[in-house]
Amino acid sequence: MAIRSLLITNHLRNNSYCCKLQFEARNLVQFLLPISKPSMKLKYIHDNSSSSSRLETEILRLKSPSRALQNWANNGNKVKLSQLNVISKQLLKSRRYKQALEILQWMENQNDFRLTPGHHALMMELIVKVNGLNRAGEYFERISGSASKKSASLPLLHGYVKERDIVKAESFMIKLSSSGLLVTPHPYNEMMKLYMALSLYEKVPLVIAEMKRNKLCRNVLSYNLWMGAFGEVFEVAKAEMVYMEMVSDESVEVGWSTLASLANVYIKAGFVDKALLVLKDAEMKLSSNGRLGYFFLITLYSSLKNKEGVLRLWEASKAAGGRIPCADYMCVISCLVKAGDLVAAERVFAEWETNCSRYDIRVSNVLLGAYVRNGLMKKAESFHLHTVERGGCPNYKTWEILMEGWVKSQKMDKAIDAMRKAFSVLKLERCDWRPSHSILMAIAEHFEKHGNFEDANHYIKAVHGLGVATLPLYKLFLRMSLNAQRPACHVLKMMEKDRIELDDETSALAAFNS
């Protein structure tokens, strides 16, 4: 959460104050623990050597911060804003958003505390996350003071943009404009993101025009979005004009992200030579302080099937130092596959496998998918066994990839076994799995061909539970029910719940089965 650091920064300027502050916070945190453990409380208050890891562990056990805080205050203990900021930061780190919101709301209700605009912005972010946009909108109306309203407006607008609620977002922008709260490029950037997400590219230049009328400077993101909108409709000349305007704007600096945006415009328009020239310039703007830019450019090089560029930037990215995260390995392996260099992708995977401390199956899934898509099923099966032997734990995506390969190679028994394993994994993992319609139908047709009614019955229930059952799938099972002379009332109920519109054939089958 971008705004949360505002609560902490001004209180952690030097080490001596930081140590004192953390010890004071530990005493308060201990009081916030369940009251049923007084011995722990007394020991903890007097134990100056308690580590910060223990502090974080105990913070994660908070149940009702507001009630405990009030009890602490009622007992004559002083509560400092700095203490609450430290505790809030720990709660946010551990994603205890509801408890962090409780602390801020308790602070708001105390006469001794005066919330800063940063607090209001964080409060808005948490309300959006915990209570939803309607409650967040109500809270915004209650905020007094233009500085606090301005700070809180961006998280609320971002919430509307994230939900792609164009009506509320545009209405909110009108309200902000009439209140004189549109004084930075950030709200306008949010609206441009929304229009890009909704493919309303023609509206992006209108936002820029409004910024110019209001004499607001554009920042780097403003120019990148503006350029990208022209790129989406292949208006290369206009995108180049935006770039030239940015170059002449002394308030912004052209960096790798802008050059990457321009290169992307050229790639979409098929101007390969221009794209390569711009990407070379972008490489010169990269910093060894972070890897983010390297992987943006790696992705663009892969779009051009330029494996040399991918490998060059991959090696250059290592100069940033530190541990290379799994996501970076996944990105470069995927890009090498896309660029058509499966051998290089295997080398990068071997490098990851040598250095990894924990076997992340998502990394091997990238290479497994490449084998399957290229029709290398024997290699895929052997690789799958290898990953399991190395300690990899297959997830639903692993089984989906193998399922796809076995269906294509007509090894339906293996595909069905993979499907069962995927369903069993889903019981343990919280995820939104949406297997392809063609794979789902292939397995259903196999059941129909072999008259396997019981397995088909379990299958249709599982697919319905995923929310991906379709009319052809239900129709197939109704045919099976009719042929097996078995009732299908439960299937008709599932179809009604899924709001499946019946065609004539399905209506006839339903009539026979009802």
Automatic annotation (TrEMBL):
Keyword field contains Repeat: yes
Protein's UniProt keywords contain Repeat: yes
UniProtKB keywords: Repeat
Annotated protein name in UniProt: Pentatricopeptide repeat-containing protein
Family as reported in the entry's similarity comment: Belongs to the PPR family. P subfamily.
Transmembrane segments: none
Superkingdom of this protein's organism: Eukaryota
Lineage of producing organism: Eukaryota, Viridiplantae, Streptophyta, Embryophyta, Tracheophyta
Range of residues in the leader sequence: none
GO cellular component: mitochondrion
Pfam families associated with the record: PPR (PF01535)
Example GO molecular function: mRNA binding
InterPro entries linked to this entry: PPR_rpt, TPR-like_helical_dom_sf
